[in-house]
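Researcher: Let's continue the batch. This sequence belongs to Biotin carboxyl carrier protein of acetyl-CoA carboxylase, and it's 166 residues. Same format as the previous ones, please.
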Amino acid sequence: MTEKTHDADVAFIQALAELLRENDLTELEVKREYGKDDQLNVRVSRKGEAPAPISYAAPAPAPAAAPAPAAPAAPAAAAPAASEDPADHPGAVTSPMVGTIYMQAEPGAPAFVKVGDQVSEGDTLLIVEAMKTMNHIPAPRAGTVKRILVEDKAAVEYGAPLMIIE
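Model: Same format as before. Here are the structure tokens for Biotin carboxyl carrier protein of acetyl-CoA carboxylase:
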């Protein structure tokens, strides 16, 4: 029984390491509880450059603040976004986990939502893939999709704003 749990833990840690590498993250920490007095705490980290995770931590503000050459291309459109953090918006839908964003159910299918769409509470907005599991992210409230802050197949961190629904 112990060997079986050990093998499962090793496979779990390998999956975390793969998720770390695929999403260009520098660190990932997970706590698993199997029962009373039986748990697994795992922190997987790697040495390397940190620019990629920094851009994922705040996807909307990073383009306006970090790459100066990109900002002059659309100053009128970027000015309102730069003055307000999308995560602070009352209609912000944030990521419940670290993973990869998919805007449609499968390649070639239409996107779940686009800017201007009316959504009902519980409608699927997008998918976040985490550890080979596709997690449908539901609309927390009914409203209109005002902004989509992520791109298809982009990595996202926990708590990062995904879209604005008003």
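Researcher: Any comment?
Model: Residues 2-45 form one domain.
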